[in-house]
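Troubleshooting: if your tokenizer reports a length mismatch, compare against these two reference records.
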Amino acid sequence: MKVIILILSLLFVNTSFADHIDSITIINNGKPGGSFNARTQLYKQGLEDKGYHVDYLDVGKISQAVKMFKESDDPTIMVYANNQVFKQDLFHTDQNFVLLEYQQPLYICSANKTFSDPVTVAHGKGYDPDLIRSILGEDIVLVPYKNSGAMLKGILGGDVDMMINNQGKSLTYMESGEGKCEASDKLPTMQATVIARNVDIQEIRELLLHITLTNDFIDYHVSRKLQRPYTTFDNRQTELDYVKELESQWKY
């Protein structure tokens, strides 16, 4: 009888313990060594430190990541850039928007060489051509590129005279000494957002915001010159007020 009671007790303890371990899927659509990849790894570590079982899916293709996110029946989060999110109609809905993680300007870069006639300008496929022409002039040839890395290779290889690119690739270009770049105050600000489905949005928002305030996360943002936004979600509450509210509940 004692043996039976002991076995039942162990089963009860194990079941109870398992019930308190939450599982969550993270879809990583970033490339190895890239910013998205690094930040999703930080989220993974932070969630595991909080006791979550994390199913980390490494998906390099954006369209595939979006499809997996839309079709997921499990608790799922994904870090995404605003231009792609708007394009896929995933951003800023009550059902999935969690957190505006950072923002950074787009840069206009020019090569140190005699420009072709007409001037050729590399840009991302999602960029507004009319807006670009309103800034740089009508007499330009716009050359759409698949991604920021391809644009950088294009201008370094002399295929284009100018490029409009994100902060990371623009800083890399300036470090090469092949040209100069200036942050634009007329082009849209690039933003990274965290989206989620099949979760308690408020609960996951508080948890992920806490992770973004850890030393490792802040150090990474500083090293990549990523500017944290003044507001987090849906412009309803300032980040400073929200953080102050959370800090009053946290125990250090």
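Reference record two:
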Amino acid sequence: MPKGEALMHDSRRSGGRVRSVLIATAMALTVVAVGSAHHPGVAAAAGSEAAPAAIAQRSVGWVGDSIGWQSQHDIAAQVSQTHQLSTFNSILGATVDYQMAATHDVVLGPDSPDILLVELGTNDATKVEPSQFADDIRRFLDGVTPHVECVRWFDLKRGGSPVYQGFNENADLYNAILANVLGEYPTVRLVNYSTWAQLNGPAAFDMDGVHLSRRGERQLGEFASRAVDLCETDIATRSERALTPPERA
């Protein structure tokens, strides 16, 4: 078992074990238009590709743990400006395996998203053996990728917690495992949440150095929107390649 503490105990799930929210574009949220004024750290951390000029109305899903759970309203507000947020499922203390069955059910159902954002792995770093983590990622993606056009998976913050020493010790190893496994799937890419965390600094985080401050929640909403934009770029690029005839010998 990886050394360290579980970042969220099961008792924290009281009042609703599964936070699954189905959200339409007409959802009752007060959305502040931000245009292109993303936080300076967002583009650098998410990737360097330019977002497409016109964004299709594809649907987006989110699956995550307590970090997504605490930021759900900011993520929804940002993503819903350009896309339909069809499903949102973040659970306190969740691991990849814990969220696997529910996610597979979603992608096989009527609310299956075109784009899936995955924010999982933080709890695995203290609960799950490294080899099992790799196997869980593969099983998760094997059930998702045939039904979703693009997956963006957020990596782990690189330690820095004054509370969760086990997480500090394991984060780099689990990020390496994540990057290695994601490279096996052509429609899946890593989102550099670790870089985002470094660029935004301590002000984005709560006292435990893992969960987010109110400022960090807002910034994660912007970052999630940027990740969706980059998925759109990938989908458009793949479509162009498919339509381009091969060169004659």
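Descriptive notes for reference record two:
- The radius of gyration is 17 Å.
- Confidence is low (pLDDT under 50) at residues 3-44, 46-55.
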